[in-house]
Write a structure and sequence with these properties.
The complex is a heterodimer of chains A (199) and B (184).
Chain A lengths: L2 H42 L15 E3 L13 E7 L2 E12 L4 E8 L5 E8 L16 H4 L27 H20 L1 H6 L4
Antiparallel strand pairs in A: 1-2, 2-3, 3-4, 4-5
Chain B lengths: L8 H6 L4 H24 L5 H26 L1 H7 L17 H27 L1 E2 L4 H4 L8 E2 L12 H18 L8
Antiparallel strand pairs in B: 1-2
Helix pairs in contact in B: 2-3, 2-4, 2-5, 3-4
The chains are: A alpha+beta (199), B mainly alpha (184).
Chain lengths: 199, 184
């Protein structure tokens, strides 16, 4: 390649870099807000779309004696509200599974019923007690609609109400226990959790 | 007429397990190839090496822009497409020579991607238009069509299933369409 060729290539390269950098500058704010919105969507996808109109993550509620949820302090809950009325509380809970902690996020209705639950992190054996695709797990759905005291929260192997996942009794037991703990915690701290309705 | 070549096989097979991902990919690939075609026409006078260089840089710029736009408005889709969006750069292994050429290559890519995306989503997970909200906003969350009583054969969600489907489509096309190069 001769000098002229290199010069042309260099000029084109610089021009293109300038364009891309300029547009990145222009979009940086939108990119940051989209990133935050995506994080929010990922965490809040267990709430039905349209069931809340506030920004729950903007107002964390610090939880007292969080060890009752199996969590080290500080732990935070979030209140979702619609038209100023609380519609759900997002409550974290932790169970001890077969291979370590199972972190859950519960959505609890103001009446204390479980609306939905989602697994934030787990280390269970893949294939056995695999919670990684929990969104589709019919097993987790079995808990929905129950409150802390309206059913026997033990798994069937222990004489309770809920099926355990085959080959993963320890995991099943840990999850059902953590969910019940969370619901009990909600009952005990209801005024605190429902108090702060953001405008 | 130059036969249409299809070199962007990795994105075509790797990122078409959902129709919405195929759509996202096509939305980038079609303008990219058309633009490369236009540029190639404009730069006909330049010597071949330099033209390739300029086309390469232009493609990099277009893909960077596409990435930025996805980051700004469709972050989940961008994360789902992953490496396959920048990997569209492989179309430069055989860049289009004219705008017509670019449109043909882009059109073929987009049509195949959408067809594979629709088939693979139906066969692989028993849905259609799943995750439409990635591209069309929260209002599209309920666009997903669920095939009754069919939850899918997972193999079609993975690359081997994509190869099988593409092979079947290829065979069908050769049966139906007269191929200029099928002398054997």
């Amino acid at each position: 390649m001769n000098k002229r060729t290199l010069a042309v290539a260099g000029v084109v390269l610089l021009a293109l870099i300038a364009v891309v950098v300029g547009i990145e500058r222009l979009l940086s704010e939108q990119i940051a807000s989209e990133r935050q919105a995506a994080q929010e969507r990922a965490l809040l996808d267990l709430l039905a779309p349209g069931s809340y109109d506030n920004h729950p993550l903007a107002a964390p509620i610090a939880l007292p004696d969080s060890e009752r949820l199996g969590l080290p302090a500080p732990a935070f809950a979030y209140l979702a509200s619609r038209n100023g009325e609380p519609s759900a509380v997002l409550l974290p809970a932790r169970g001890t599974g077969y291979e370590g902690n199972i972190d859950l996020l519960l959505a609890v209705s103001p009446a204390g019923q479980l609306l939905a639950v989602k697994v934030l992190s787990e280390h269970e054996t893949p294939g056995l007690g695999d919670l990684s695709n929990a969104a589709k797990s019919p097993w987790l759905r079995g808990f929905f609609g129950h409150s802390s005291s309206d059913t026997d929260w033990r798994v069937k192997a222990d004489g309770g109400q809920f099926d355990q996942m085959a080959g993963a009794t320890v995991t099943s037991r840990a999850v059902s226990k953590a969910v019940q703990q969370g619901l009990r915690y909600f009952d005990a701290h209801k005024p605190l959790l429902l108090k702060q309705v953001t405008p | 007429m130059r036969p249409v070549t299809l070199v962007a096989l990795a994105p075509l097979l790797g990122a078409t397990d959902l129709l919405i991902k195929a759509l996202g990919l096509s939305l980038v690939a079609l303008p990219l190839l058309a633009l490369l075609g236009v540029l190639a026409t404009l730069l006909q006078r330049l010597d071949a090496k330099l033209r390739t260089l300029v086309l390469l840089m232009a493609a990099c710029a277009v893909l960077s822009l596409a990435d930025l736009l996805f980051q700004a408005w469709a972050l989940e889709l961008r994360d789902a497409l992953g490496i396959f969006l920048p990997l569209l750069l492989v179309v430069l292994l055989q860049p289009p020579l004219t705008m017509r050429d670019g449109l043909r290559q882009g059109g073929l890519f987009a049509a195949l991607a959408l067809l594979l995306g629709a088939l693979r989503e139906c066969l692989g997970s028993g849905t259609l238009l799943g995750h439409a909200e990635w591209l069309f906003g929260p209002a599209a969350g309920n666009w997903t069509l669920q095939l009754e009583g069919f939850t899918g054969l997972h193999v079609f969600g993975f690359a081997p299933g994509a190869f099988i489907l593409l092979g079947v489509l290829w065979a069908l096309a050769r049966c139906v369409l007269p191929f200029p190069d099928s002398k054997a």
